Inverse folding.
């Protein structure tokens, strides 16, 4: 696979040799948990799961403690992922200090995180097919929305794995 044009743009990890990525949406029952599960699976496939930790949260607290939305979980399980471990969490500002990279699903989530910075980005920046696009909220829509979310987060996860591998290379900062 060829490296994407912006390879090497991930910020340096806070702890060398490890990386912590957080996916953030509104409710933490649809988009960010789908992105969380898909990236985690891609990292397992790439042999990077022992060095990269993935988390997710929602800026709203309505669903804290709940499993993934059943439409989101079905979309993932039909595609071969295990969505069963998820329990919703709420984002707070401490995540900004703890995580190496926070990936918002849409511009409203991005604003709630304080706006774009080296560590706070839109997940869609890593989607080579629709660079910079938002991952639209599927909660009030039909099942098509969940398929679209899965396809978007799979494309972004593939690129993130390439960038994370490069970022974790001990020679990256020499
Ligand atoms: P998510 O979707 O942000 O992708 O988890 C939503 C889930 C719940 C609500 C809104 C969006 N809600 O308003 O309860």
């Amino acid at each position: 696979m060829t490296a994407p044009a912006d390879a090497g743009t991930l910020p340096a990890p806070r702890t060398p040799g490890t990386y912590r990525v957080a996916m953030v949406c509104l409710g933490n029952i649809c988009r960010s948990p789908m992105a969380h599960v898909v990236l985690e699976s891609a990292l397992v496939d790439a042999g990077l799961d022992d060095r990269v930790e993935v988390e997710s949260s929602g800026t709203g607290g309505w669903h804290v403690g709940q499993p993934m939305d059943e439409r989101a979980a079905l979309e993932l399980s039909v595609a071969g992922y295990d969505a069963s471990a998820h329990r919703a969490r709420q984002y707070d500002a401490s995540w900004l200090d703890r995580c190496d990279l926070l990936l918002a699903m849409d511009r409203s989530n991005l604003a709630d995180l304080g706006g774009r910075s080296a560590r706070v980005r839109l997940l869609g920046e890593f989607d080579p097919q629709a660079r910079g696009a938002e991952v639209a909220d599927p909660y009030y829509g039909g099942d098509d929305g969940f398929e679209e979310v899965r396809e978007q987060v799979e494309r972004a996860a593939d690129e993130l794995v390439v960038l994370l591998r490069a970022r974790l290379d001990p020679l990256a900062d020499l």
Remarks:
- The chain has a mean pLDDT of 94.
- Residues 143-168 form the longest helix (26 residues).
- The chain has one domain: 17-165.
